[in-house]
Amino acid sequence: MKNTLIVVSAAFMLCACGEKAQTAGGARQDAAPYTGTGKPFADQTWKQGDKTSWESHLKARGQNTQNEYSRTN
To answer: How far apart are alpha carbons 65 and 72 in whole angstroms?
Structure first.
């Protein structure tokens, strides 16, 4: 009984050594986000492929819809 307990506990310890590292790899993108999707359902005021237009829309989205202070006042 004692030998079985030692063998089982040793097996559990060895299993823990074989665990792979869990790192956040993230999604790879082959194109810049501002290039668009080429689909017609994108925002009509945004020109797909225009970086400055993309940045201005992101700024407006952050100020108008995702800023709790400006939404409550």
So the answer is: 11
